[in-house]
Design goal:
This protein is α/β, with parallel strands linked by helices and 305 residues long. The chain contains nine helices and ten strands. The strands form two sheets. An eight-stranded mixed sheet has the order 3-2-1-4-5-6-7-10, with helices on both faces. A two-stranded antiparallel sheet has the order 8-9.
């Protein structure tokens, strides 16, 4: 059983990935897609958040939180609602009626197991997936600013995603302590994941001059340099400051996905609201004399007249 530590909004990065680049898995499901939050911990808040983030993609999505601790399952029952339920279980992913999940998100779960136990856990979960299903095995820090996850399907690990908060980032290799269990002990010279982090750090240092245009531009230049060096970085820059994936560097042919944001979403939203609050333009033939945009005749006592 895991320690169960969790926090609101901690898994926002992987949730955005599931609702963005991986949304096609939900849309292609012929019936209501089932998404499992495996090992949600002492608080079911991450399962509730997952439901709210996936509903815009598929309104009929069903999120199931599964925990091996019966007490945690009982405590979460009060939060059940249409599209959200909780159950007892582990890597066997027990679902009512033998349903097969489209996505199983197992975050900060396998990190507390031995590396030799990872393949068996992956095999147990993948065996329960739907035809186009995906297991997301990942780790993040306590507030979700640094995260890394491996996407696994029936053919094995497909990609490694590294997601970082760019503000205050000294070097990309800071994510090393948050690598998934299958990779964290392989971050040593001679291993592909170690070479990847070294390549990221060197590219980050060489793109220091680009920081004059913003940290997002520096990160974008870093991703482009790593791709040019031969690393299989997937996709391209996205709105919000990131790049999407590459195969898992546990194999040299694996893909790596890089993503980053320069400031919290709340700050961006405040900026947008501020832009929307600008005073309306003055009517044709008049001039603006006060914040309301009124003309001098309409506002004869205006102090700006």
């Amino acid at each position: 059983m895991t320690r169960g530590t969790t926090a609101p909004n901690r898994l926002r990065r992987v949730d955005r990935w599931l609702a963005g680049p991986q949304a096609w898995r939900l849309r292609r499901s012929t019936g209501p897609p089932v998404v499992v939050d495996l090992g949600y911990g002492s608080s079911p808040v991450t399962a509730v958040e997952l439901l709210h983030r996936l509903r815009p993609v598929r309104g009929d999505v069903e999120v199931v939180g599964i925990e091996i601790d019966q007490a945690r399952v009982a405590a979460a029952r009060d939060l059940e609602q249409p599209g959200l339920r909780f159950g007892h279980g582990g890597f066997e992913v027990p679902l009512a009626g033998g349903a097969r999940p489209v996505v199983v998100r197992a975050f900060n779960v396998l990190r507390q197991y031995g590396e030799e136990q990872v393949p068996a856990a992956w095999a147990a979960v993948v065996d329960r997936l739907a035809g186009n299903g995906l297991l997301v095995d990942g780790t993040c820090d306590e507030v979700g600013r640094r995260a890394a996850w491996i996407a696994v399907d029936g053919d094995g690990p497909q990609s490694l995603t590294i997601s970082l908060r760019l503000a205050g980032l000294a070097r990309p290799s800071e994510v090393a302590e948050r690598l998934p269990k299958a990779l964290i002990h392989r971050n040593v010279p001679g291993e592909p994941v170690h070479a990847l982090l070294i390549a990221l750090d060197r590219a980050w240092e060489r793109q220091a001059a680009v920081a004059a245009y913003g940290v997002r531009q520096r990160f974008r230049a870093t991703a482009e340099a790593v791709r040019a060096a031969g690393w299989p970085v997937l996709d391209g820059p996205r709105r919000g400051g990131g790049w999407a994936s590459s195969p898992s560097p546990g194999r040299r042919s694996g893909l790596v996905r890089l993503s980053g944001r320069s400031r919290p979403r709340s700050a961006r939203c405040r900026a947008r609201r501020t832009r929307r609050r600008r005073p309306p333009a003055a009517a044709p033939g008049t001039r603006r004399c006060c914040p309301s945009g009124a003309s001098p005749r309409a506002a004869p006592r205006c102090a700006h007249r």
